[in-house]
Amino acid sequence: MLSLLFVFLVDGFFPFGNGSVLALDLQSQYTPLLYRFYDVITGSKNLVIDFHIGGGINLFTDTVTALLNPFNYILLLFGRSNLYLAVNLLLPLYAAAASMSSYYAMKKLIPGVKQPLYIVLGLAYGLSYYCAYQFEIINWLYIVVLFPFFFLCLDKLLKGQKSPGFVLLLAYILCNSLQLGIQLCMFTLVYSACVILKPSNDEKCSKDVCASLGLSVLSGLLLSAPVTVPTIFNLMNSARSDYNSSIASVITHHGLDNIIERLFEISSPVSWAILLFCLVASRKKLKEIYIQYKSLFLCLFVLILTVIIEPANLLWHLGSYQCFPVRYGYVVLWITLLLSGKLLSTMCGCFGCVQLDSAKSVENTPVCDSSATSKEAASVKSKLKRQMYSYISLTFTILVSIAVLLIIYKKRLAFAQAFATLDISNVCRNQALLLCLLMTLIAFAVVASLRCGIERKCSYITLITLCAVTGIAWNMSILLPQASESRQSMQ
Questions:
Q1: Which residue did the predictor score with more confidence, 323 or 153?
Q2: Which residues have CB under 8 Å from 486's CB, separation 6+?
Q3: Taking a C-beta distance cutoff of 8 angstroms, is the pair 163, 39 a contact?
Q4: Model pTM?
């Protein structure tokens, strides 16, 4: 939240000025719906028909979606005249809520990890590229907040426990966003298959879990039908229903042209750095770790494969899409963070951490002929030396990252205008590569911090700071500065 407020402060956005983040779809589609939400709540308009658009149009499903989102009610505090400014506050609130929901779910799913590490995993989720880039489709961010709770309920079902929350959350998400809700149904199928089809599972137990899961999904679909059925009819009658290109034509049109967009959607330098570091550090026990977390490894592999291979990616979007090629990117990010946290929980304390007390105890040990003492002293000196190199590399990497971030700050207008084209790979490849460089540097800094010792407070502080820097970089590159000519022309 503070990362976004810092960007708001730099660019003069409300509440630190009179600037508004409104742009693209957020300005032309979703903010007008928020005004309608305000009018319906205050009694100025009815729930179904809006006679101020095209002589009268049915906006029942859009209005219900807005009414179901508790974040929208914060706008009522600022009045109708300031609503376009109050929309700014929704972005940091969504980021903070996503981080908190991820923090809560991680604590439930990953025992044995110190609290600061839960904070790191939560921040990496809430300050991701997905949350920054989807600011214009602002109602999707609410689904990002709800997903960790959805996964908790799904995990209960797959363990053979009753979970009425799964049915309620699935129906609620479908009512808020039909497309993302359907994608969560598809994710449920993929993840459940990875869990249930393990050879160690009892056949009878697996059948019971499948029956319970199928009944829960069906119940969620039926419960959401009063909203989803009218939404489907509206979509079929909309102008975009004509955009029904064949799979072959979409593959030909996109191919790998939008590969940078797709990879950015699932990117989090902190999560990927932690995951790769843990895999390398535990390479001698990689087989045992894979067996222990086989379901998560398989699920992550399948999800990444669908991101890269266009035909599989199209399945998630029901055959075709316009812009935003990986709308389920937050799911991939969450699984990556969960797996990273699981690996850390099994390796905590095994990163070569060196406590000063241990070094002093070796120094104060009386000199003797014991070879064990000399080996212990050599081991401590080796760890101290490795730790010193890690601190040096961490300092260097952070300094270079700051330099790159300053370049992005000075050219943030060019970055924001380029990202606004929604065609990063072709239009603003240089800017995208510069951001890739920054994220790579942040990933190196994460690895160096872990090598310094995960048990140390300075490592926790460094990881949290790197999460914040990541959020600042993404939002500074994507949000159009208030003083830009493009912003002035829109107003």
A1: 153
A2: 417, 420, 480
A3: no
A4: 0.86
